[in-house]
C-alpha cells in the first residue's frame, strides 16, 4: 500500500499486558481520544490468560498511575474501542484469532511492544494469518543488537512490509523539546553564525536517571545503557544539534540531514568510553550475579565535518545517578585577551526533561567598584502541562496516518550501530559506582580538557 497513505483502520498492540503498554501506550490512547484522534478498534494481544474485562481493568489502572488520571469521557470511549486476544505468539491460532477480531479492517497498524527476540516470529505469524496485508508495523528500539542483527531484522521486515509501512519508534524524536532543538536552530538567525567549531568549545548531553532498572532487569540485561539509550535516543539528540539546515522542498529532508551527521561521526574507540555498573545491580531480579552489563556510559564523540571538526560531543547517561534530568549544554569558546571573563564562559543550556527550559549563560558586570563579571542565566521555562502532546501520542498518531518523518530510518539505524559497534560487549572494562554518585570517576577525565562536566540546573549552584 502507501502511495496514497490511508488512515489505519485498527490499532493492534502486541505485548498488551507489558510494561510499555502500561506506562506509555494506554496513556497515549486516552490522550488521542481526548484530542479527537482515535476512533478505530484497539486490539490488545498478549499471553496472560486474560479476558477482555481484565484487559480493561489493566487500562484503567495504567491511566490512574501514568495517564494523569482517568478521564471519564475518554475512558468510556476507550472501553468501546478495546478488544482483546489472548494467546502464545508461537501459536498460529493466536493470529487466526487476531485476524478474526480485526473483522472488516483492511489497514491495521500492528504495534510490536514486545521483546525484539520475538519480532521475527510475530512478523511471520502476521503474514501467514493474513493480518499483515495492507497493514503497517511499528517497532520499538533497539532495532537489533548490533549492525548485523539490525540488517537481518530489516530483511525479515521487508519480506512482509514495504519500507514505507515500517515505523521504527525512537520516542525521543517525538518529544516536543527535542523537536524544538531543530526549530530553535533554524528559526533564529542569530544562532547560525556561532553554531560551529569557531565558537563552540564542546557539547555535553546528560541523560541521568535517579532510579534503577525498576523491575526491568531481564530487559536491561539484553541491552545495557549503550544499546538502550546511547545508540538511539542520545545520538538522535546529537543529530538534531549537529545537522545542517534541512531543505524545505522535500519531505525526507530532515531524516537525510540526520543520517549525514551519523555517517560523519567517528566510530567509538575504547579510550573514548567509560562503562559503569551501580553497586547492587547484580542483586536485581532477572540480573545475572556476574553480569557485565553497563548501567552507566560516558562517551566522547567526534564529528568529522566542516562545521564540527575538533569539537568534542559528550554523552553521559546512567541509572541510580544523583538526579533525573535530561540536559544539553553547548559551551562556547572564551573571548580572547580579557580579564573581564574569568570563570565560566558562555553557554546554551537546553533542559529537555522533566522541565523544558532554554537558558543562555552570560557574564555581566558584578555590581560594585571593581570591573569584574559574574555569571547570569537568561532563561525561558516551559513546564509541561497535562495538555502537551506526549511523544507516544504524537508518534502513534503519525504512524496511523502513514507519516514516518519522526521515526528512525533504517540507514540512520545502521549508521548509529556503526558508531557504537567497536565498543559493544565488554571491550571496555566495567567499573562499579555507588548509587547516587555521578558514575565511575574515570568519566570525569573524559572532559578534563574542556573544564569538566558542566553543572546541571538541578545541581547545587556555584560556577563550573
Ligand atoms: C527508554 C529506555 O527507551 O527510555 C529506558 O528503555 C529509559 O531505560 C527511557 O528510562 C527514558 O525515557 P524518557 O522519555 O523518560 O526520557
List the main descriptive attributes of the protein structure presented here.
464 residues, binds 6-O-phosphono-beta-D-glucopyranose, nine-stranded mixed beta sheet, globular, six-stranded parallel beta sheet, alpha/beta
Structural summary, described in words:
It is a single chain. This protein is α/β, with parallel strands linked by helices. The chain contains twelve helices and 15 strands. 33% of the residues lie in helices and 21% in strands. The strands form two sheets. Strands 14-13-12-11-7-10-9-8-15 form a nine-stranded mixed β-sheet. Strands 3-2-1-4-5-6 form a six-stranded parallel β-sheet, with helices on both faces. The N and C termini lie far apart (55 Å). Bound molecules: 6-O-phosphono-beta-D-glucopyranose. 6-O-phosphono-beta-D-glucopyranose binds next to α8.
Secondary structure elements and pairings:
Blueprint: E1 10-14, H1 19-34, E2 42-46, H2 52-66, H3 72-81, E3 82-86, H4 92-101, E4 108-112, H5 119-128, E5 136-140, H6 147-160, E6 166-169, H7 176-186, E7 200-208, H8 217-242, H9 253-264, E8 273-278, E9 296-302, E10 312-318, E11 325-332, E12 347-353, E13 356-365, E14 373-382, H10 391-401, H11 410-420, E15 430-433, H12 442-446
Parallel strand pairs: 1-2, 1-4, 2-3, 4-5, 5-6, 7-10, 8-15
Antiparallel strand pairs: 7-11, 8-9, 9-10, 11-12, 12-13, 13-14
This protein binds 6-O-phosphono-beta-D-glucopyranose.
Residues 209, 228-229, 326, 353 line the site of 6-O-phosphono-beta-D-glucopyranose.
